[in-house]
Structures are given as structure tokens and as C-alpha cells.
User: Which sequence fits this backbone?
């Protein structure tokens, strides 16, 4: 029988390969944990509300000149209806607790041929 020659030295030592695999595994685990931490911080900051909006110091509400048709207070809302001309109204809705103008719109009335 012929003897099989075994080389005394392998091409790359197994200890180096074990060390390389262990170092690369640790680097991958730390990289993954780093990404998870960064993403969770970004998501947490995205979901948290920003600082409270400061209330403006000027609470003046401008109402157009005209004849006041109606004032109505209901559920802390003040509704003011002002007749600007014979066919145009202005409606303003103001929150009385915050003293802010919530909505303001204009209505133009059309005369119907049926109503005389």
C-alpha cells in the first residue's frame, strides 16, 4: 500500500479561520443592533408630538362693517352673522375659550324668481 502524504501545514490555519468567523459575526451583530437602535430612536422621535404651539398674544378678531344680523353662543362658540350688503353675509365662528377665529366665510344670496 502506498502511503498518503499528509502535508504538515495546511494552507490557511484553522485557528485563523475560526478567529475571522468570530470577529465577522460579532461585527455583524453589533451592526444590526446599531441599525435597530438608530431606527427605533428615529421612529420614537417621529411619533412624539413637537413642543406645544405658543399661543399668540394678539387675540383681535376683525369683523367687517355692516349690520349685525345675529349673535349666537353655543358650546363655547360665538357665531356672528353680519350683513355686508343686501345680498351678502359674513359668518364668523370664534372659540370663546381660546379667543381664536375658527372659521370665517362669506355667503352671497341669490334672489329667486319665485320669491317676490
Assistant:
Amino acid at each position: 500500500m502506498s502511503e498518503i502524504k499528509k502535508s504538515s501545514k495546511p494552507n490557511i490555519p484553522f485557528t485563523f479561520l475560526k478567529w475571522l468567523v468570530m470577529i465577522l459575526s460579532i461585527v455583524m451583530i453589533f451592526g444590526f443592533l446599531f441599525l435597530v437602535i438608530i431606527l427605533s430612536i428615529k421612529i420614537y422621535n417621529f411619533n412624539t408630538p413637537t413642543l406645544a404651539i405658543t399661543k399668540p398674544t394678539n387675540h383681535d378678531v376683525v369683523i367687517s362693517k355692516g349690520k349685525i344680523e345675529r349673535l349666537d353662543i353655543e358650546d363655547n362658540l360665538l357665531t356672528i352673522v353680519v350683513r355686508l350688503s343686501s345680498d351678502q353675509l359674513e359668518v364668523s365662528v370664534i372659540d370663546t375659550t381660546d379667543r381664536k377665529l375658527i372659521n370665517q366665510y362669506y355667503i352671497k344670496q341669490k334672489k329667486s324668481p319665485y320669491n317676490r
About this structure: The mean pLDDT is 82. The first helix runs from residue 14 to 47.
